[in-house]
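Hey team,

Filing this mostly as a record. A colleague (T.K.) asked me to run one chain through the structure pipeline before their review meeting, and I want the input and output archived in the tracker in case anyone asks later how it was produced. No errors, nothing strange. Just documentation.

Input sequence:
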Amino acid sequence: MRENIKVTVKNILTNYLELNKHRKTQERFTILDAVYSMDGHFTLEELGDKLTNDYNFPVSRATLYNTLKLLIELRLVVRHRFQTTTKYEACYDNNSHSHQICTMCGKVTEVKSAQLTEAINNLHTKRFRKDGFTLYVYGICSTCQAKLTRQMAKGNKKKTQK
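Output structure:
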């Protein structure tokens, strides 16, 4: 399945470049392949490391930025601006999903909800065609909640000892 998607997104990029008379560079296609080989969210640095280590194909930061910008325009990649970082994600086969984000540690988890997807799909919009959605739900993860509970328990214990 993943290889089918890689072929499809490569064709989308090829067609766009040909129609707009842009150069079909090895960098663009290698970056696209690397993006669609990564699981989940990734930073620009992680993509650069993958290209260097796994593909033996180092590229400049400017090339990464410019290529990702193009892939975002083509809706092959989505950019997420989380609390403290910007992450990217291949989205051709997954353009509608939700994230829960811990406001303490910054952990991001994807949430799959058929009910939410159905609700948004059934949402009536006026003079607007929906193509997909991304939802961010902020809160505190269970690990951070446990830390807070322990800290509060320690604080209460010290108060009662005085």
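Quick notes for T.K.: Strands lie at 77-81, 86-90, 96-102, 108-111, 133-139. The longest strand covers residues 96-102.
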